[in-house]
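During the no-cost extension, the postdoctoral fellow (Dr. R.K.) reprocessed legacy sequence entries with the updated structure-token encoder. One reprocessed record is reproduced below for audit purposes.
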Amino acid sequence: MSTSACAGGSLGTFGALETLAALEAEVVSCRACPRLVAWREQVARERRAAFAEWDYWGRPLPGFGDQRARILVLGLAPAAHGANRTGRIFTGDRSGDFLFAALHRAGLANQPESVSAADGLRLHDCWVTAAVRCAPPANRPTPAERDRCLPYAVRELRLLGRVAVVVCLGKFAWDAALRALAKPVPRPRPRFGHGSELDAEPMLLGCFHPSQQNTFTGKLTPAMMDDVLLRARELAEQGHVP
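Re-encoded structure tokens follow.
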């Protein structure tokens, strides 16, 4: 299959012998969305002055974490000077600082910092990924870009095999998860909110995105994220996984 023609494959099928490593290689080589390819590579070439010495990643981002995870954290997309620079999702930006500190407090990460792909961070019972794998201009992927990328998350979820709950960071991730995982989407359509839950397989749990807009204004506090992750652990314990 040519990744330049069709990203992610089908929402319904993937190779029976597929591995996470093979999926990661496919994600990293994807060039399906011209606007995103152009932007991620432009940012990697031009760089931000503060990161002038960095060799930017400048490619799509695979998920990472514990391959036996029962909790999957689904974000929006990589940050242009965060994951698009460091090569690991939610790494090297303020959103990631907030998220991984919370994962550490919840016992899901071995350290609270995430600054580079070689910093020793390990996740326990948790996998972190994104609905869209390339950094988008103005942090706003289009619906078409989302839909091209979503099958990667579906395949990732199936390969992980034990996920009981998906923590959706923000409305974009919530809507993406509904579109990809809830078949059929319930009517009326479940609305996103902080702490919203949808009884599906896996369970969906809403959380405000740890963007600076939310964390600097107090819309999302550390205690609020702690509550969501505590609930995620409770749901994971209740889930029926192999």
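The longest strand covers residues 71-75. The chain has one domain: 20-238. The remaining legacy entries will be reprocessed before the final report is submitted.
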